[in-house]
Amino acid sequence: MFVVVEMVDTVRIPPWNFHRQLNDAIAEELNKKLANKVVYNVGLCICLYDITKLEDSYIFPGDGASHTKVHFRYVVFHPFLDEILVGKIKYCSQEGVHVSLGFFDDILIPPESLQQPAKFDEAEQVWVWEYETDEGAHDLYMDQGEEIRFRVVDELFLDTSPTGPTTDPEKESPYTLMASISEPGLGLLSWWSN
Amino acid sequence: MRGVLFLPDGLQARTLTECTMEVRDANAAMLSNFEVYQLLIELKEKRKEMVKNKHSTGQQNLNTIMYETLKYLSKTPCSHQSPENVKDFLTAMLPHKLTKAEKLQLLNHRPKTAVEIQLMVEESEERLSEDQIEELIQKVTEILPGDPQQEEGAPGDAEMDANADQ
Fold first, then answer.
1. Gene3D superfamilies from the entry (chain A) (predicted)?
2. Across the interface, which of B115, B120, B122 has its CB nearest the CB of A184?
3. Averaged pLDDT of chain B
4. What CA–CA distance (Å, rounded) separates A133 from A137?
């Protein structure tokens, strides 16, 4: 679920950090800029992997800080298509089952990708798998906090850069994963453990 | 400080336009959960030593993501793995001709049942016989360490079930 991404960026080190080792100061600035942030079409950045190349540092007139072009690699959360992951159910809604990994929250299993037949229990706000056996139907509830195994079927990157004062500040997620549990072995871990 | 150059105005404009961040390769390499786990633990140790200097508020994002990711990974099989386990596992997987992605999933999940193997190996019905699937489960559970607490619990449960049957 994690990949290494090669990036290049110019890092600004303010004068009060000149006493520090350049590598450490740059690592800190890169982590400050990227950690826990989503880069469009790349994924959720976790932490710096390493610095591969440091170019010369420049000081520009009017700014006492140094600017250094850095080639580095970053650890990014970006599951591949069809990857199997395990998470916890955050909550259920009409849109489907919302799953979280703790460090990443925006995973949605839409109703059509649940084990079928499934129904939404309005009273308890929970999706239910109406599991049929010869003895009759068992209702298997998808409760909050339950561990769930799912397959990543799609990803959605949204550019959430600020546009202007007129647009409604909607809580759009910059990176959402669509998942499915419609195969044997997928769904709550408790459904498949002997 | 290495190589600091003071530029005259003429060159300033050109260099500043190269300031935007660039992604050179969005998929340079895949990392196993084990590698990320090790990296985060090392980083945590390094940062503990640097706490004496200062704890700037800008570090909060890194703290949050490190804490949450470590919390998640510590509950997965990678937290019990060692570099030797991973090497032995990859060697044992050679004859099965699995793709990198398939081996990675087996390494990260340590599947114990056939149904899990079938989820992670594409077209498993055509590529693996039942015996081969059993062989994979054997190798995976033998080479990769499991959760010590869970493994201890299992024989105990079997005993309890036997008593219940009586």
1. Nucleic acid-binding proteins, RNA polymerase Rpb7-like, N-terminal domain
2. B115
3. 82
4. 6
